[in-house]
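Hello again,

I reread your note about wanting to compare the complex against the isolated chains. To keep things tidy I'm splitting this into two emails, and this first one only covers the full assembly. Below are the input lines as submitted, including protein chains and any nucleic acid or small-molecule components. They are followed by the predicted structure of everything together. The single-chain runs will come separately.
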Amino acid sequence: MLTLYFAPGSSSMAVHIALHEIGVAFDGRPMSFKNNDVGSPGYLALNPEGKVPTLVIDGRPLTEVAAILFYLAKRFSDTELLPRDDIEADAQAPRGLNLAASDVHYLSQALREYYDEKSSAGIDGYSEKALARVWKAVRFSWWMTSMLHRFPDTEGFGARIQLAELDYLVSSKAASASLSENYVGLPY
Ligand SMILES: N[C@@H](CCC(=O)N[C@@H](CS)C(=O)NCC(=O)O)C(=O)O
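Full-complex prediction:
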């Protein structure tokens, strides 16, 4: 039995849409922020963060949009919300989610500027700003792949460079810091 606690117009819509896309029966429980439904002791027992969404699976609560979408995609794998039998393609999903979350950060700033300060500068510059970040994420992904994968035509010089790159990474604090910064997300 699946029960979804959601609020119209909030990030819980992503889960709501996924459930409809899958076509599975679920019990929908609309929550009102105005009435502080998310702050009631009963709801806090399910989701101590006091946020929506929460998906209750046979009595067990699961929170966080990304985790719930991941669960639904795995459980209803025939709907192919995630690619099947392809680990690398599978990994692109959380990568895309992380990237989208970063873009939303810029977008929310731009929308706030627009409505609070009546300035469209943030919206006008949004694509350029978001794309610059996307390309840095693509660069990082390309760099990790070029260091860690074995390529059929990479031997001799290319293979030695890969090893040197790896050696530098594990022996230099600066190189490790750069990897960490890119891995968890570049600063805004
Ligand atoms: N990291 C959480 C964020 C959830 C979240 O921020 N939900 C908002 C709605 S978009 C909420 O419930 N806010 C209630 C409140 O702040 O009172 C997730 O991904 O599920």
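For quick reference: The beta strands are 2-6, 27-30, 54-57, 60-63.

B.
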